[in-house]
Every structure is written in C-alpha cells, then in structure tokens.
Specification:
Blueprint lengths: L12 H4 L4 H14 L4 E7 L2 E7 L9 E6 L3 H19 L3 E3 L2 H10 L1 H7 L4 H13 L5 H12 L3 H5 L20 H15 L7 E5 L5 H10 L2 E5 L3 H13 L6 E4 L10 E7 L10 H10 L1 E14 L4 H5 L4 H6 L8 H11 L3 E7 L1 H17 L1 H6 L4 H19 L3 E9 L21
Parallel strand pairs: 1-3, 5-6, 5-8, 6-7, 8-9
Antiparallel strand pairs: 1-2, 3-4, 9-11, 10-11
Keywords: Lipid metabolism, Methyltransferase, S-adenosyl-L-methionine, Transferase
GO molecular function: methyltransferase activity
Family: Belongs to the CFA/CMAS family.
Length: 435
C-alpha cells in the first residue's frame, strides 16, 4: 500500500520561503508520482519528511533510500528535463541521497513511472536535448570532437581510479571480493584465449584506450598489435607505455579513425568502442571490422548492450550519459548488432557471453577509488560540479548493471574461412555471486 506522511518536526519555515507557488505545485506533483513506486523513498525537504512507495518489491530484494532536497531548483529541473534534469540538479548540489545506486535501481525497477516523468513539460526539454544530440553525429570531425570531450579530460584523472592496466571497460570478476587488478587481468586473458592468440598473429585493435590490451597481448601472447585511437591524450600515453615496455617493434599505435584503416589481419579486437560510433554508423563499423580480417580471421567485440525491446526508445531519447558524459554515443542491443552484422558482413557468431554483473562490480571499484582520491581529483583542477557529475555517472551506470537493464557482451565472430572455432579453449562463463 502506498503511504505518504509528513513530519512537522522537520519543517523549516525559513527554507520554505524560497519555494514559489509553482515550486510547491511541482513538488506536490512529483511526490504524488513517486508515491506509486514499488520500494521505499524518503524525501526530506523544507516541508518535512515524505515517506513514499510501498513494500511491494515484485519479489526483488527491498531497497529504501533517503533523498534530501536542499533547494527547490530540484523540483524545477525534474519538471523541465526529467531524469536528465535530476542529474543536473545533483551536479549543482540541489539534493543528495544516502544510496544513489539504490535510487537508480528503484527507478529502473519502476521504469513505467520514470517514462511518465519524461512527459509533459519535460518533453520540451527532451526535444531540445535531442536536437543538441543530433549535432553530435559521429562524422570524422564529429567523432574526434566527441571523443575528446571525454577521453581527453586528462590521463592523470583516469589513472586515479582505473586498474594498473588502465582498462576503462568491464573487468571479469570471479567473486565480489576479488580485486579490480585481478579481475581486469582476467578479462584480458579471456579475450586473448577466446581469440586463440599465437605469436604468429597480427592483431588489429579498434579503440586503443591507454594501450592495456595491446601491451597484455604482445607481452604475454607474443603477437603483433596494430591499434588505433582518435584521442590525442590516449595516443600519447599509450605510445609512451609501449616504448617504456620495450614493445615498439610489436605494437604500432595509430592516431586514425577506424574508417581509414586498411590491410588484413589475423585477429581483431574492439573493447567497448562500438558505443562511441553512433547508431548511424553501426553497419559501417561492422563492415570495416570484417574487411580488416583474413578469410579465416576471428574478431572479439565487447559491447555494452541495452534490452532489445527498449533499443528504439533509447535511440529516440537523450539520457544523462549522452548529455553530459559521452556525447554522440549510443548503446546497441544484441539484435541491432547481429542485424547489422547480417546486413553488412559475412561474419558468423561463434559465441556470446554477457559479463554485465561484473560491470556493476567494476563500476563500484572505480567509484570507491574515485571517492578515496577526491583531494587529488580537485588538485588536478576539477571543481565540485565535475566531482558530483562523475559520482552521479558512476552510480547511474552501476545501478543499471545491477538491475540488468544494461549488459556487457563479448561477441566472438569468425570469417567464413575460419575452421578453428571448435578448437578454442572451453571457457566457462564467469558470473560473480553477490555479497
């Protein structure tokens, strides 16, 4: 049963004066909507404590969160821009939550309610954001601009919270208590083993990152790697790391758009890069992957994925990630990937593994490391708004992976001439239990 109560002992007349009549109306409307949520949200503001939701969790573990609203701007932002407005309001310090990941989980579990919050006046804000997003199309020039907006924030920032390999993608955990270092290395080994990498192989990698995969593959499997990125910051550091490791003869780091690559390779790797290409270029991307492979070549593509039935809706909307973290991005569904593969390539799918649960643990580890080193983040020149934006971003993603509304798939693909698939090592899926 839905409940809503207000504690008069917690009211604050001085802060209430900041609320205009429209603010009070927007507050009342939002609390009314949240009152129907499955789960528990306590909303505390100048008017007291509202206890919202119900004990009905649909059989899922119960979640209760406490939201503290500091300023009425929160209610205005949600009304104008829905969930993106809530994130922007958090960046400004208008509200806090004792369990931000739990709040995201509750909203994912009540997505029908969340979808309704994007309507009304918020629909106008959504239209404006979609118009902005349309200008972020991933042409060659646009891609460089979009990638620079995130990956060129500064290598020193990313080094504060990533593992020693500087892998900015999901690790593979065997259990929740495992270290990020161990889980990140396991991910790299599983990719190399799925591809059956050998010293005679020449591998092409689309999306260098900071060189983590290329260094691991060349150092431990003896292969040659040609890897490309369009981030100048990543290219500079990856090149330095390769030289420092004494692997310059085995690893060639390029600063080129994937569309400009040529040649033929034995194996191809692309780890969570497809999300940056833009949905309009999915066929182009997969066709290029196939064209770079020898007739018997293998490819491993690791991709964040969305549920098939929500893919079209997601393409037509702009969420917090598209707006503030990865401009020009999209999340493909499995059917979108395989459909584009069928239309544009002769690749066949050998295996697929969802490592989404491990991504929740990876994000938790990144968030904990980020928070532990906030003094160093600030010392690099990042302000409080940036810190809160990144906190919201990491929690937003972690909650999505915990609720399995997004996944992370490793797709092993083969060209028609490949006959080695049945001889690949039998790697059993790793799905960590939850503490």
């Amino acid at each position: 049963m839905t409940t809503q109560a207000t504690s008069l002992e917690r009211t604050d007349p001085d802060r209430q004066a900041a609320y205009r009549a429209t603010d009070r109306m927007l507050r009342s409307r939002l609390l009314q909507r949240l009152g129907g949520i499955r789960g528990r949200i306590l909303v505390e503001d100048a008017f007291g404590l509202a206890e919202l939701g119900s004990a009905d969790t649909g059989g899922l573990p119960p979640i209760e969160v406490h939201v503290t609203v500091h300023r009425p701007d929160f209610y205005r932002q949600v009304a104008l821009n829905g969930s993106v407005g809530a994130g922007e309001s958090y960046m400004e310090g208008d509200w806090d939550c004792d369990d931000l990941v739990g709040l995201v989980q509750l909203l994912v579990r009540n997505r029908d309610l969340l979808d309704r919050m994007e309507g009304g006046v918020a629909a106008l804000g959504g239209w404006l954001m979609r118009s902005w997003h349309a200008w972020r199309r991933n042409t060659r020039t646009g891609s460089r601009r979009n990638i620079a907006a995130h990956y060129d924030l500064g290598n020193d920032l990313f080094s504060l919270f990533l593992d020693r390999n500087l892998m900015y993608s999901s690790a593979v955990f065997a259990h929740p208590a495992e270290s990020l270092e161990v889980a990140a290395t396991r991910k790299l080994d599983r990719i190399c083993q799925k591809l059956a990498l050998r010293p005679t192989d020449h591998v092409v990698e689309i999306g260098t990152g900071w060189g983590g995969f290329a260094l691991h593959a060349a150092r431990h499997y003896g292969c040659r790697v040609t890897t490309t990125t369009i981030s100048r910051e990543q290219h500079a550091l990856a090149s330095q790391r390769v030289a420092a490791a004494g692997l310059s003869e085995r690893i060639n780091v390029l600063l080129e758009d994937y569309r400009d690559l040529d040649g033929r390779y034995d194996k191809l790797v692309s780890i969570e890069m497809v999300e940056a290409i833009g949905h309009q270029y999915l066929d182009t991307y997969l066709a290029k992957c196939a064209s770079l492979l020898e007739d018997d070549g293998l490819a491993l593509i690791q991709a964040i994925t969305i549920e098939d039935h929500r893919y079209r809706q997601a393409l037509a909307s702009v969420d917090f990630i598209k707006r503030h973290i990865f401009p020009g991005s999209f999340i493909p569904s499995i059917s979108a990937l395989t459909g584009a593969m069928a239309r544009s390539t002769d690749l066949r799918l050998l295996s697929m593994e969802d490592i989404g649960p491990s991504y929740a643990l990876t994000l938790r580890a990144w968030r904990e490391r980020f928070v532990q080193r906030l003094d160093e983040v600030r010392a690099l020149g990042y302000d409080e708004r940036f810190v809160r934006m990144w906190e919201f971003y990491l929690c937003y993603c972690e909650g999505g992976f915990l609720e399995r509304s997004i996944g992370d798939a490793q797709l092993l693909l083969a060209r028609p001439g490949n006959r080695r698939g049945e001889y690949l090592p039998d790697l059993h899926p790793v799905e960590p239990g939850w503490a």
